[in-house]
UniProtKB/TrEMBL annotation:
GO molecular function, one term: iron ion binding
Keywords: Electron transport, Heme, Iron, Metal-binding, Signal, Transport
Name listed for the protein in its UniProt record: C-type cytochrome
Endpoints of the signal sequence: 1-17
InterPro entries: Cyt_c-like_dom, Cyt_c-like_dom_sf, Cyt_C_IC, Cytochrome_c-type_DH, DUF302, TT1751-like_sf
Cytochrome c domain ranges (all copies): 16-93, 107-202
Amino acid sequence: MKHLNWLLLLLCAPLLAAPDGKALYEDNCSVCHHSRGEGGIGLPLTDEILSQVSDDYIAKTIRHGRPGRIMPSFEALSPAQVKAIVRYVRSWSGKPGPVFKTAKLKGDAKLGKPLYEKNCVRCHGKDGSGEGPGTGVTMSRERTFMVMPAALNNRGFQQSASDAMIHDIILSGRKVGGMPSFKSKLSDQEISHVVAYLRTLKPPVIRQGMEEWRGKPAYIMESPYDFDTTVENVKQALTGANFRIFPQRYLEQGLADEFSVNTRQVSIRFCNFKELYHLLNIDPRLGTVLPCRINVIERDGKVLVISANVAQLATLFNNQELSEVGVLMEEVILAVMEEATL
């Protein structure tokens, strides 16, 4: 019996072992934050940033993500797995994270609003979306900014950050994001007023009919027509919407030899040159993702019409005007796709 117990213990040991935080980080986080938190698509997890946020904040950020931004939620991870990732990230500096009180600060949102508008709007935007008018140095933020300003109205941020943590960051600033310290500009009580006002900020209202696409990287619709008819339908709908269509390309063109290219996957590229000129004047970086395109692919007996989620893509440029254009373009592209598949 004694030997049987030992055998069961050995067999169950792998199941009882703590999750491997390094492996979990590499599988789920490194693609955006890089192998040691250097950052890239995602926020750089520098010693400065990690010294300002609690383990609870990191765990909740992993759990809730940032809806509508780049950071997804990882709800499929168990609490033990999330904790293992946090522990691994902390191991880089070997220092424990700060611990903040969870109680709400005693501030007045009405007094905080003018303070926010005077000190924070330029970077975080009037609505707290992180899409302010910019500093005037280059496009929408200073050239030295490594990251986009935080979306303070984001549901994921609001759920993850404690009042005390926000207060501390406002007080000390954040070099990696270009955020100045307000220690000499605002009193502790004034910062508490600002925090109270931040809690009133709400994410943008999702327009009726767009809910199903919110937070998704692409719009996908199944066509009831055959492949060739669907391609022609898309072109006709684009022409009717006053777009100019570029020569059609296969998705695999240039990636495989001409005899191996899948001819049932095409990319229909299109543009309105007047609007293009206007958009590039708003932000030249937009040229990296233009022209717009709608892909038509045939797979497993289905014909699918696919386009990038332009409303979500536009938010990545940290430019309020461009985000508003993205919302309008979303409606146009979805209308084109719906017309082609009706």
